[in-house]
Amino acid sequence: MFDKMKQLYDFQKKAKEIQKELESRSIEVSRENGKIRVIFDGSQKMKSIAIEEELLVPQKKELLERLIRDAVSEAIGQSQKLAAGKMKELTGGMGIPGL
Question: Which of the residues in the chain have pLDDT under 70?
Fold first, then answer.
């Protein structure tokens, strides 16, 4: 019983360490030669978005919307892959169903 509790404690400790590491990682995605840039951390929180002024005109509204959507989607996908890789490291060989 004590052994299982220690394993759980170690698992929780490692999970917290991974969460801190993910929060400290940055994922930057740009579009349109850097005219749109989004930065997310590894826990999928947006840290910043930058848009060059030349795209902030009504005639480029649809382009701007598409570029932002695509950049955000890619950054989230990259952060999900990063988090999944870290979770795999944490759970590797543990045989935990669903992880």
Answer: 93-99
Q: pTM for the whole thing?
A: 0.79
**51, 52, 58, 61 alpha-carbon torsion, rounded to 10°:** -40
Strand pairing category for 36-41 and 46-51: antiparallel
Distance of CA 95 to the CA centre of its chain: 25
CB 38 within 8 A of CB 48: yes
Instruction: Compute, in degrees rounded to 10, the torsion defined by CA atoms 62, 68, 73, 74.
Output: 120
CA dist., res. 59 & res. 55, Å (int):
9
Distance between CA atoms of 87 and 99, rounded to whole angstroms?
8
Per-residue model confidence (pLDDT) at position 93: 53
